[in-house]
Amino acid sequence: MSFGKRISLGILLVVLLIWALPASAYDENVVEIKGTVFAVDNDANGNVIAVSILDAGGEEYFVVRDEIGDQLLKLVDKNVKVTCVINVGADGKKNMKVKKFELFAT
Hints:
Layout: H1 3-28, E1 30-42, E2 48-55, E3 60-63, E4 79-88, E5 94-103
Parallel strand pairs: 3-5
Antiparallel strand pairs: 1-2, 1-4, 2-3, 4-5
């Protein structure tokens, strides 16, 4: 194999490795949590603008506001099963990026 082909193959392998690592790291961090939706902040008109999920063990997860997370603003006091990624902030708060959710009965 010529030197040029080896370089090209090496670059291709590095690109594939870089592309694959974030995908596998993401999949490993996806978890399911069951809990109750609670309002944690309201605007001046009393509309819910931030929610968290409190699980049966007393752990609180703050929902990241995005297209899916915002749907939980309408489900205060409802029980949900959430598929999400959890990140712990510098302040120790557990933030939840919701991938999908469903209501469930207790």
